[in-house]
Sequence to fold (297 residues):
Amino acid sequence: MNVSRMETVFRDYTPRGVKFYYVYKALAHPEYMSYLNPFTLEERLMHVAEAKRTLGMKIPWIVDNMENTLKEALSKRFSNAEMIIDAQGKVIGKRAWSRPEEIREALTRWVGPVENPTRVEDLNIQTVPPPKAAASGVVPRIDRPDSAQMRPLIVKPESSEWDEPFYAKLRAEAQLDVLKNGKGQLYLGFHLDPLYNVHWNNLVRPIQVLIEAPPGVTLSSTELSGPEVEEESDIDPREFLLDIVAEQADEPIRVSTFYYACNDEEGWCKPLTQSYLVYLKMDWEGGSTHGLPQFVP
Fold:
């Protein structure tokens, strides 16, 4: 989404009765600017607040539900679609990829031209980075398989024992061969959500991961431990790469974690036990963490 160019069109045509909206659907590129796929509608609303804060947006937002009903109805798997809807609710213009220049041309035809079109440089948009709770770049990222061969998997969080947010969100990916033939590598990455401004506590035992594989699924390891880190705190992801053989995958893999999350601003550090269910099925709304468009077969 080209925010600056879209905002120029918004400024030009809003006085003439055209209403503009951004639609929050699903993140096309989780991990970009450290933001992660939300688990709740409240977290989606928090993302919108962050977008307004970090990008200075003026266009209002419509937030889709967690089932992505609006996206399915209007743009299905297109992550950056745009459309023009007339006063009677009829779609009179639609693109799979947003092009603000073409919106301007279409609105000129439907509404009329503007005398002094706003330029991008007229907006003076100042982007603000997300908060950073601690140092990053402390723990090296692991070497993952070729991104073209990795697919996001469906991950469902289980209820937290203390009803706390999932400060560390699980990103699960599998090689395409796992989904096709049942053999390959499984990536599990635990990423701290910047919405909560937390960091790892490296003065205590590192994150512990216990994996319960269902019948028909074998993993190279079912007990994992995060790295020992000299720095007292950091925000780098804790990542693991496993070999997996799935002769059948009727039931999900249960991944349980124990870790400490700390928020220095609020003055707390909490031990947390949280669990996820990982399904060996591609998550079509999982997006790409490799800077590539979402995979469509």
